[in-house]
TrEMBL record:
Residues 53-103 form the Methyltransferase type domain. The keyword Transferase applies. The keyword Transferase applies. Pfam families: Methyltransf_11. It comes from Chitinophaga tropicalis. SUPFAM superfamilies: S-adenosyl-L-methionine-dependent methyltransferases. InterPro entries: Methyltransf_11, SAM-dependent_MTases_sf. Keywords: Methyltransferase, Transferase. The lineage of its organism: Bacteria, Pseudomonadati, Bacteroidota, Chitinophagia, Chitinophagales. This is Methyltransferase domain-containing protein.
Length: 244
């Protein structure tokens, strides 16, 4: 079942004693992972750089749709910006649920994919009514001719504290983040028109409020304060990782 929507990939409920797997760690593995697997060792088509492995991690070349692990071998599995690339999302997700008791999944959201589309992404995703929905981009003739990735992925995250706060106060704006236990509900290429309208039609205010419920001023201030604290922690964390 879905547990919650974490604010970031570092806002995870992982115990000190948990054995953690990351599927598709690529050039930016999670430092908490004990074991990291990746399907492509020498091909950077699906990532932004060469594979990186920290000193405390074991690396295996493996396909996320056919993981070489026993059932529930891990306490927790992390999957960060991989699901949108896979050929068979049903097999891929079922393997996550098989090998781990709990986990975290993160992908670009529908809005994020519109702002910085990638040719290597086969699926566009959104959480609708507590279900993760995957739609084949070809099925909806997804536009890819505008790409604002340099602005939203490079410049603003590095240069704007205001943007960093926005990312944290509305974490599912550009990404879809979900922490789960035992698995979660998902739909691939739905036929339901009420779901498809999120992917194919202009969003009404009703749709916006369903996806981003209105918060009080007090809640907004609390979220902004928490976000600023998290930014300070992330700066410290990045400096530590650079030394690793």
């Amino acid at each position: 079942m879905k547990l919650r929507n974490p604010h970031s990939r570092f806002d995870l409920n992982i115990k000190r004693t948990d054995r953690v797997l990351e599927v598709g760690g690529g050039h930016n593995p999670h430092p908490r992972a004990n074991v990291v697997v990746d399907k492509y060792v020498d091909d950077n088509t699906h990532r932004s750089g060469d594979i990186k492995v920290f000193k405390n991690q074991t690396f295996l070349n493996a396909d996320g749709e056919h993981l070489p692990f026993a059932d529930k071998e891990f306490d927790y599995v992390i999957c960060n910006h991989v699901l949108e690339h896979v050929e068979d999302p049903v097999a891929f997700l079922n393997e996550q649920f098989r090998v781990a008791k709990r986990g975290y999944i993160e992908t670009p959201s529908l809005l994020g994919e519109h702002l910085f589309p990638k040719k290597s992404h086969k699926w566009v995703l959104l959480e609708v009514n507590e279900k993760v929905v995957l739609v084949d981009k070809e099925r909806i003739s997804f536009p890819t001719h505008f790409d604002f990735g340099d602005l939203y992925l490079e410049y603003l995250p590095k240069a704007s504290i205001g943007y960093k706060i926005l990312e944290r106060t509305h974490p599912n704006l550009h990404t879809m983040r979900l922490e789960w236990e035992g698995g979660f509900d998902f739909i691939v290429n739905p036929e339901d028109k009420d779901i498809l309208r999120y992917f194919e039609e202009p969003w009404t205010r009703e749709m916006v409020l369903r996806y981003f419920p209105q918060r009080s001023m007090g809640q907004e201030l609390a979220e902004a304060t928490r976000a600023f604290t998290d930014i300070c922690k992330s700066i410290i964390r990045s400096r530590v990782l650079r030394k690793a």
